[in-house]
Amino acid sequence: MRETLTRLRYRYWPDHLLGEILSKRWTETAIPVILLLIVGFALSRSLEHFLSPASLADTARQAGEIGFIGLGMALVVIVGGIDLSVGSIFALTDFCALYLLDVLNWPVPAVVVVTMIVGGLLGAVNGVLIGYLRLRAFITTLITLIIYRSAYDLLIQRYSNAIASAFPDIPSWDFIGGGTVLGIPSVALVYIVIAIFGHVFLTRLRPGWHITAIGGSRRSAYNSGIPVRRTIALCYVASGVLTSIGALFFAARLGTVGGDIGVGLEVIVLTATVLGGITLGGGKGSVVKSMVGVLIVLLVTNGLTAMNARGGVNRMALASILLVAAMVDIRWQKNRTRIISKVYVAPTYHALPPPPPTEIGKGGPFEQNDRLREVSLIGLGRIEAPEDVILDRNDVLYAGSRHGDIIRFFPPDYERMEVFAHIGGQPLGMAFDKQDNLYVCIGGMGLYRIKPDGTVEKATDETNRSLYSVNDDSRLRLADDLDITDDGLIFFSEATVRYEMDEWPVDGLEARGNGRIICYDTKTGATHTALRGLKFPNGVAVASDGQSILFAETFGCSIKRYWFAGSKKGDVEIVMDNLPGYPDNINLASDGNYWLALVGMRSPSLDLAWKMPGFRRRMAKRVPVDEWLFPNINTGCVVKFNEQGKILESFWDLKGLNHPMITSMREHRGYLYLGGIANNRIGRFKLDNADPDFVQYDKRWGKSS
């Protein structure tokens, strides 16, 4: 009875939702915060006109002006720096615009261009000092803040009267400062356009990826060939240009060069940046987060101003918000792993029946033997982590490497090797299509296609998001094995939607149904989730009927069958439900049956712990990660089975000298080729009574033309 109640509690109680909510950054709750601020100020008796059109238009203009500076600050922070001089740059470029227009009587287009150039040059000073000379960003921009502010003070002492006495009546300048389009301020429209470009730049263009990569790890970015110093310098230049754009709109709106222009602006912008969720450590951030932070800060400051709060109160409020936001950000980054292990990891009840015997002398289909003792080795010490292996029609052997390469070995002796393609992520499952394109599941990246000439193309890295998921599960985190149907449908498994590739043991600790089967249509390019709620799905193989697939649930220690077409479409049935080890890749055998790799063997301690979710939860909270109970993947074997779930043969290496763990195998022309993600070699084993002419893709699709 107690076991039944435990099973029901951990199956249906969504403990992991709390962890998903707490593990999200502040930005995910920023929209409700904005709405609460608007409603709160709107309902205040002292702010009767807070939501009036005039007030909203004024807020939009301020948001646009400060938003430009916020975008520049976001770039600098994402790349791993900080810019405290934005307030002084804002003041200098405001002076520049008004001096050129009011004193020198320059045309408006020239004023705009030159002011932006001046802003870029001021930012370039920071860029050269920080990017190329590698000075500390904080102290460098603090010094330039003082220098630029001193220069501004000297300039306004001499020219402020000349600027103040000029009142140019220029329609284009007036439109910049106070014009509207369909009731929307011009500054807001320009800001939206630049923000959209900034979003595309950061998320879709290579230079934007470089900025994020540098902020994440400068050393790794440098080793990857990214021009780190130049990119950092250009980010400060861009910050200066964006600040000057904000100053142009400010100058056109107010036309003043007072002594307090830009004072404290760096605090406002930095508060907006951190409050929006852009981490001070660099490497994470977005345009949307910058926009949200600016809106929150403006709502707070404008609300306090409308309530007749003194300037000191405003500054104190901003400083307090910045302090709290920075503290949360820094503490989160420092203790992220510990926090996640306490609130995000949510073990559930998972009971497995006693495993079938494997010991010598006890009989049974899994009885240990030493049949893999004579395995010959390919690429010993020259390849690392060949999780999957595959051969083409010309007997060339392909395997992935942990360095992000696809390596190929040439027959007949497979001594000569070369890098066929470089992808960058860990290659896992592989399969050829009818046109000899090699499709590869890349951990953390998705599904990729490599053409026969070595050209790498992304097939898909996302699927449809589930409606009931708190966490965004549209991105592919751990695509790991695949197979292709005659009609060009690619079914591949994604082991977990909650954890990254290097965190796979944590998914084993949870033992939840975090995995899924995904279908990619090579004809239309569409991707959809075919099956959810699987316990670390791994191997995938198209069944003989062409209407179903066989797939492995690693932590379920089972093989299942899913019909994607025909009269049973959508049905799932169990083929084998109590394996003695953890199933991995599945591939076709020459006699019409299937090969299966058991990556490791079950242990009584973990089987027992899987029935005790409370114990595993306490272990996650109190015990270091390297001392958790993990699935054993040190010793495995290869078995042959049929579609009825009957084990026909098993192959073991008792001493583990050649292949201590096996993640994949391929039969090709009478040999079985073995791969292992923890190995530094590929195994080649001569099969007895196997078809010496068997080539998997020739059998399925015929000879290549």
TrEMBL record:
<keyword id="KW-0325">Glycoprotein</keyword>
<feature type="transmembrane region" description="Helical">
    <location>
        <begin position="287"/>
        <end position="307"/>
    </location>
</feature>
<feature type="transmembrane region" description="Helical">
    <location>
        <begin position="233"/>
        <end position="255"/>
    </location>
</feature>
<feature type="transmembrane region" description="Helical">
    <location>
        <begin position="261"/>
        <end position="280"/>
    </location>
</feature>
<keyword id="KW-1133">Transmembrane helix</keyword>
<dbReference type="Pfam" id="PF20067">
    <property type="entry name" value="SSL_N"/>
</dbReference>
<feature type="transmembrane region" description="Helical">
    <location>
        <begin position="175"/>
        <end position="202"/>
    </location>
</feature>
<keyword id="KW-1003">Cell membrane</keyword>
<dbReference type="GO" id="GO:0016787">
    <property type="term" value="F:hydrolase activity"/>
</dbReference>
<feature type="transmembrane region" description="Helical">
    <location>
        <begin position="137"/>
        <end position="155"/>
    </location>
</feature>
<dbReference type="InterPro" id="IPR001851">
    <property type="entry name" value="ABC_transp_permease"/>
</dbReference>
<dbReference type="Pfam" id="PF03088">
    <property type="entry name" value="Str_synth"/>
</dbReference>
<comment type="similarity">
    <text>Belongs to the strictosidine synthase family.</text>
</comment>
<keyword id="KW-0812">Transmembrane</keyword>
<dbReference type="GO" id="GO:0005886">
    <property type="term" value="C:plasma membrane"/>
</dbReference>
<dbReference type="GO" id="GO:0022857">
    <property type="term" value="F:transmembrane transporter activity"/>
</dbReference>
<dbReference type="Pfam" id="PF02653">
    <property type="entry name" value="BPD_transp_2"/>
</dbReference>
<keyword id="KW-0597">Phosphoprotein</keyword>
<dbReference type="InterPro" id="IPR018119">
    <property type="entry name" value="Strictosidine_synth_cons-reg"/>
</dbReference>
<feature type="transmembrane region" description="Helical">
    <location>
        <begin position="104"/>
        <end position="125"/>
    </location>
</feature>
<protein>
    <submittedName>
        <fullName>ABC transporter permease</fullName>
    </submittedName>
</protein>
<feature type="transmembrane region" description="Helical">
    <location>
        <begin position="68"/>
        <end position="92"/>
    </location>
</feature>
<feature type="domain" description="Strictosidine synthase conserved region">
    <location>
        <begin position="480"/>
        <end position="566"/>
    </location>
</feature>
<dbReference type="InterPro" id="IPR011042">
    <property type="entry name" value="6-blade_b-propeller_TolB-like"/>
</dbReference>
<keyword id="KW-0472">Membrane</keyword>
